[in-house]
Prior knowledge:
Layout: H1 7-19, H2 28-31, H3 50-65, H4 73-88
Amino acid sequence: MAKKPSMMASLKRELEKAEKSPLLKKGESELHPMRGERGDFLKLTITMPPELVLKLKQHGAERRIMGEKNCDTSSLIRSAVKKYLDEYK
């Protein structure tokens, strides 16, 4: 029986792969491709407090009213995480 790689080794490989990704160096348009063009994206499930989800939905609605694109919750979270990680480095 083949030995399963450790979680840390697997995480390290994924991190190295992600650091080489051109997505991290590109702008918002690549962060939010058209629906159906997200084949290499990973699906992530998170648990959030209801108040934070409500604020996200309100912010998305405000952006939609102003005519901005990418107002759905997933897009807002992707943008926020990218901005946080860009500032973290």
